[in-house]
Amino acid sequence: MTAHSDLQEAADSPVDDMDSAAAAISRFYDEAGDIDDREQSDDNNEQPEAESQSDDDDLDVTGEDAQDDEPETPAIDAPASLTAEEKAAFAALDPKSQRYVADLEARRATQVQTATTKAAEAQRNAEASAARADAEAQARFAQQLKAFGDKMAPQMPDDRLADVDPVAFNRQYAQYQIAKAQHDEFMQQVQEIGAEADNSLSETEMAQRGRELMAIPEFQNEETRDAFLTRAETAAKVLGLDVGHVARNATAKEIKALSDIQVWKEESDKYRAALSRQMQRVREGKKATTAKPNAAQPSSSEGRGVKDAKQRARQTGSVDDAARALRAAGF
Fold first, then answer.
1. Where are the domains of the chain?
2. Does the first or last residue of the chain, that is N or C, have fewer Cβ atoms within 10 Å of its Cβ?
3. Residue 278 is inside which H or E element, if any?
4. Which residue, 217, 259, 216, is CA-closest to 236?
5. What is the value of pTM for the model shown?
6. What is the pLDDT of residues 178-224, one digit of tens each?
7. In angstroms, what CA-CA distances link 177 with 145, 147, 165, 191, 293?
């Protein structure tokens, strides 16, 4: 009997049979509850796959969101050359744009540094050239003053005037003494000017040579500087040069050339030593080589026959004699 039939039976039953109606209604609800439980169970059996798929979808979506949230490249620090406002604007950029701006700023900084270095070097060269020109001008001026002073040197009065007119001679000699004292003072000043010009020129040349030497990597590096100068000094001695004169007056190019000469000499000495050792081994190998045992050695008579045949062939120029000489030699 189904729940609907029981309910219908309870409805058709007399009113006084309340117990029967109540029992029928109770069975209806119990049966309806069983049906719901079975339907819920069936729904639960079908639901896991969907729920699992939903869970997977949720995981995938979460993963995609996490991947989308991560930047392509990590953010970088703003270049130090930017102002506070520029750094704030830089921080608002995406990492790719930040990298682009940072690369541009780094290239600009490199270009500025290169230009600054070149400008500083050009300024140093200009100052050195101006100082050298000034020192050379002072030296020329001192030479010109000396030449002028030599021509203006006072002349002592003629001694013969003392015999003719002693009073005039004494007067002229007194004037000569005064002029000579003045001239000597002038020439002393000229000499001081010349010495100052020479010192200035020497200092300028030394400073210029120092800058040129510092441009040489081997001299600039303190660890290789002594070896560089030692090679130049050694080469100067080998070439018979005055080492003191080289140290005082040689230019940076000349010192570099002397150092290179010594390097080439040392490399040449090493090559010749290695070649000598190799030739010594070859000579020792030839001495150690002996004739094979039981090898036929040419007799003295055979040697004389070969020699005679060659001599006849040279004298006569005959083809037959040449053939005999070849046969005698074993060809």
1. 3-64, 84-205, 218-287
2. C
3. helix 252-288
4. 259
5. 0.38
6. 999 999 999 898 888 888 887 877 778 788 888 888 889 988 898 99
7. 21, 21, 18, 21, 109
